[in-house]
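[job 0417] fold request received: Cytochrome c oxidase subunit 2
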Amino acid sequence: MLRLRQTAPALLTAVVVLALTACGGMESAPNSTFNHTTDFNTAVDGLWDRLLLLGTIVFVVVEIALIYTIIRFRKRPGGPEAKQIHGNVALEITWTAIPAVILAFIAVPTVKTIFQTQAPAPAGALTIEVTGHQWWWEFHYPEYGVTTANEVYVPVGRTANFVLRTKDVLHSFWVPQMGGKRDLISNKTNMLWFTPNADLGTNAYNGFCLEYCGASHANMKFRMFTVQPDEFASWVAHQARPALPHDSTRATAAPAVPTVTVASAAGTPPAPAMSPDLGYVFPASELPEHVMPQTPLPARLQFDDAVLAQGDAKRGETSFMMGGCIGCHAINGNPMALSNIGPNLTHFASRHTLGGGLFPNDDRHLARWIKNAKAMKPGAQMNVIGVGEYDPILKGPVTAGLTDAQIADVVAYLRSLK
Ligand code: CUA
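[job 0417] inference complete; emitting structure tokens
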């Protein structure tokens, strides 16, 4: 017994250290599933805690009995021969009954949680149609007529009901911090819903594809933003509008805001300065580091960044239409751009990432993406646009494409799509 008394504190210390390192919170484990951010993961984590507790009790009781038996009844030199027995009805009934009771304690909450998380979404839920594509995500809000890509906004306190479909192969939708994970299956519609806690605050989370779906499965990412109801209302109202008309070059891209305020005759406070309402967008300055893409640029893909400053949105719009972009991309407000093969670009400039969440949405990355998306992302289905770039479909260099200067114009045009 002396030995047990010496090892017990060491064992206890090990358990405590393990328990402490497992509870580092959102900052140290940004993609952890052990959060209580939604009703869904609260239910699943509650079930997990319960199973862990029951399993630990069983483990401790069994191990204590085992170790005690091994030590107490070990063979001693010159000791008597052990008592020879066959069967013990009381013992056998007991060790069958106890596990049956334990299983009931496990089964009831497990089945309850399964039914709870598989039930149809409650009335009033916000429907978001999710379509998986090789290798990006389309999000459509039928209630508001909004289509976006790779970035999904959900208001806190309202159930978000994700209607999951795929355009091609199997994918799987998962935002680890928000709970749930469900497959997108061909010719079938799956559902997944959860309610971000009303007190969750404004935050950003990583989303992943969790079903192997081809060359860029690992590059099929998205971001989820939990926002306040008024922020969501502002975001969705602007996203539902057509793209703003642009008549500006890069130099004047920031619209001049009249600063004149007009005091009303009735003496009420002056009307706010007129400015184009671009709607709420999750502030770039508040993006947590772990949601920012860190993908390096391919070294062999060259682009003359100096020409970006000369980009012209009006010329870019023409290049966008002549350069084949409209074959795949829709822009609400551009009557020529109607295709839904690639991501809808109506408010592209309001997004923080591009290329299926793989790169930050800045001019440097966007220009290279337009020039040669296939070099930026393995298997990318976007055509190679840059003149002189190797096109694996043509099996040769692109001849009828865009020069760096023309790409800079397209960048300016897309940048005007706020
Ligand atoms: Cu889509 Cu893996």
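[job 0417] notes: The pocket of dinuclear copper ion is lined by residues 132, 135, 171, 209, 211-213, 217, 220 (CB under 6 Å). The longest strand covers residues 126-133.
[job 0417] exit 0
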